[in-house]
Recover the amino acids of this structure.
């Protein structure tokens, strides 16, 4: 039985992904044969040559215009749409289809697309509740940035900067002073992204935690720390001169320069992301495939 709540399926492809055009055309027919209405993101509609009169929506508005979101592309495309789902404050699942190598988030292959859709519609699909975080940059009495984040918040030095100093507090209690090239605050989902490259641990997405990982720390005692997800992390730059350049980025997709008295506040979001997984593999299967565990 098809889940009654799902009547509109949002379709969005990676920018300029010409290889997706044929898949989108076939998918449209598949959905309509099941009395489901495809809703195309505007650029995706142009990619497939959608005839006039079909419902379309901007990327920002698409989460409000559908009950299920299908993303064709890579992890970056899915992360961007995850942020838009959070911003729209809707509770819709997202299904990521990878073009190319298997992704950590867009793990469903083209061969698995229709079986995965069938499973979502009949209510048997495995759907992860992936924790998201809210990151705010506070400048005095003003909030200069407020972003939903799926993977990580990263504070780094500029290209010509020296090692930077960061003061870290958890729940208003001072924890450590980090002297490093930067600091990553990651979710379990983001643990296998930049956090992993910087030497941080892999954390299963079902674990309710946040990760703090210094990037190339100057002090060997600055090690990755795993803390309860309910904690509020506050990171403040300690600038020694006007030549210091620090930047904060959110999921690697947006960011800004930090000033001396700024505070970056990070805490768990109230609403998780519903991520459709492939029923053919576990999280550890995915890690083995991506990280080549067991290969010589």
């Amino acid at each position: 039985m098809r889940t009654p709540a799902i009547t509109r399926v949002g379709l969005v492809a990676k920018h300029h992904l010409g290889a997706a055009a044929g898949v989108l055309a076939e998918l449209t027919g598949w959905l309509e044969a099941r009395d489901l209405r495809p809703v195309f993101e505007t650029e995706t509609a142009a990619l497939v040559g959608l005839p006039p009169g079909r419902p379309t929506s901007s990327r920002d508005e698409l989460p409000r215009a559908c009950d299920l979101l299908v993303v064709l592309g890579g992890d970056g495309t899915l992360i961007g749409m995850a942020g838009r789902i959070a911003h729209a404050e809707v509770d819709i699942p997202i299904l990521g289809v990878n073009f190319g190598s298997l992704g950590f988030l867009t793990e469903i292959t083209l061969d698995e697309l229709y079986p995965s859709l069938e499973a979502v519609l009949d209510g048997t699909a495995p759907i992860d509740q992936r924790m998201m975080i809210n990151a705010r940059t506070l400048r005095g009495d003003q909030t200069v940035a407020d972003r939903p984040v799926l993977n990580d918040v990263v504070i780094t030095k500029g290209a010509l900067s020296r090692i930077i100093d960061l003061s870290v507090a958890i729940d208003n209690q001072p924890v450590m002073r980090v002297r490093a090239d930067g600091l990553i605050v990651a979710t379990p989902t983001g643990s296998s992204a930049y956090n992993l490259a910087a030497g941080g641990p892999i954390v299963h997405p079902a674990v309710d935690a946040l990760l703090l990982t210094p990037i190339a720390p100057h002090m060997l005692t600055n090690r990755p720390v795993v803390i309860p997800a309910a904690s509020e992390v506050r990171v403040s730059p300690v600038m020694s001169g006007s030549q210091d350049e620090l930047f904060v980025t959110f999921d690697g997709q947006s960011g800004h320069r930090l000033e001396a008295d700024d505070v970056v506040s990070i805490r768990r979001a109230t609403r998780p992301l519903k991520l459709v997984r492939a029923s053919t593999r576990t999280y550890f299967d995915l890690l083995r495939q991506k990280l080549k565990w067991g290969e010589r």
User: Anything to note?
Assistant: The longest strand covers residues 142-149. The two ends are 46 Å apart (CA to CA). The helical segments are 21-32, 42-48, 75-88, 113-122, 194-197, 283-291. Residues 78 and 281 are 19 Å apart (CA to CA).
